[in-house]
Amino acid sequence: MGRKAIVTGVGHYAPPKVLSNKELEKMVDTSDEWIVSRTGVRERRILEGERGSSYMGVKAIEMVLNDRGMSPEEIELIIVATVTPDTMFPSTACRIQDALGAKNAWGFDLNGACSGFIFALQTAAGFIESGLHKNVLVVGADKMSAIVDYTDRTTCVLFGDAAGAVLLEPAREEGYGLLDSILRCDGSGANHLYMMGGGSLYPASHETVDKKMHYIYQDGRTVFKFAVTRMADVSEEILLRNNLTGRDVKFFIPHQANLRIIDAAAKRMKLTEEQVVINIDRYGNTTAATIPMALSEVFHDNKIRRGDYIVMAAF
Ligand code: COA
After folding, report:
1. Which of 56, 72, 94, 134 has the fewest C-beta atoms under 10 angstroms from its C-beta?
2. What is the distance between the alpha carbons of residues 219 and 13, in angstroms, rounded to a whole number?
3. Do residues 116 and 256 both lie within one domain?
């Protein structure tokens, strides 16, 4: 067996400012009851002030390095999954590298939206498995409040700001670490969930601002249908091809977009409530941050034991 990558540190950060459903009731035509029953979200966090995603990423990484007892100078590579980079360039990874004082690291951003952390994790694992690096920081950081239209009730209730991070290093023993992954994308869905403005197709202009093109647009129903089947499909497939069943899984850590989507995947894997990690009620959908944040929370709650199988899934 070749060299595998293993997670040797985890951390997360959620800004202190809480935006509750009750507060949203005053901003748009919605209700706490509607939001909770349709999505599972009760409150979300908002990053205040002139701060970008890198601010939260650095905080999450500090927790990782502190746990691991490692200094920033020892880091070799930083991969940041985000759709809300501080700036188009330089990358948020560069900003984090500088803020941390990770003098010997290189880094780049990876845009995989809600799948960003999973894509970045596998990318990072490749650098470890190939022997090119002996450690890689993987960060999922999104300040969704920067691209949410707080007059659009169909999206503003869903999202929040946060960051999560993990450190990958070579596994010392066989059978431990990142064992398998299934990665896919389907660009034909591009018309159902996007932010149109600010890229090379529609550069920022008065017109793009007037047309609200710098905000998230989502056809919720279509995304919902896609998510319910696809997240369940891959979760089931990865168990099957590793000769595992739901019963072997200690924790299922799904992307936190909607409680009903999570329930559908958990049902297909035949999991009990205790096996499914949920924090959407407290943070909403924090895009690339949901999975590392949930992983960090269960880890720091002391719930993960050596040898436990964990399945992570996003869409
Ligand atoms: N408060 C009150 N009513 C709302 C509302 C809100 N915040 N948002 C939408 N509604 C209304 C709609 O306008 C619609 O009214 P209508 O029937 O008069 O047109 C009604 O509620 C039902 O809307 P619908 O979009 O069918 O609701 P839904 O049950 O599909 O839930 C989402 C909407 C967005 C919660 C759900 O579709 C979803 O979670 N989709 C996936 C989103 C996702 O995962 N995105 C992230 C991808 S990583």
Report:
1. 134
2. 29
3. no
Which ligand 1 atom sits nearest the alpha carbon of residue 260? 39
Q: What distance in angstroms lies between residue 221's CA and the mean position of ligand 1's atoms?
A: 7
In this structure, the answer to whether residues 148 and 201 fall within a common structural domain is no
- Of all protein residues, the one whose alpha carbon is nearest to atom 46 of ligand 1 is 257
309 and 195 within one domain? yes
Going by CA atoms, what residue is nearest to atom 14 of ligand 1?
A: 154
Active site residues: 114, 255, 285
Is position 178 within any domain?
no
200-216: average pLDDT: 98
Q: Which atom of ligand 1 is nearest to the CA of 285?
A: 46
Q: Report in angstroms the alpha-carbon separations of 105 from 4, 67, 71, 78.
A: 21, 19, 12, 7
Q: Among 42, 118, 221, say which to mutate for ligand 1: greatest number of ligand atoms within 8 Å of CB.
A: 221
> How far are the Cα atoms of 25, 35, 38, 150, 284 from residue 29, in angstroms, in the given order?
6, 11, 15, 11, 18
Sorted by sequence, the CB contacts under 8 Å of residue 106 that are 6+ apart come out as 76, 77, 78, 97
Distance CA 90, CA 100 (A): 16
Overall pTM > 0.85: yes
The Cα-based distances of 96 to 36, 70, 105, 128, 236 in angstroms read 35, 16, 10, 21, 36
Q: For 165-205, how does the pLDDT look when each residue is reduced to its tens digit (9 = 90+)? A: 999 999 999 999 999 999 999 999 999 999 999 999 999 99
How large is the C-alpha radius of gyration of the chain? 19
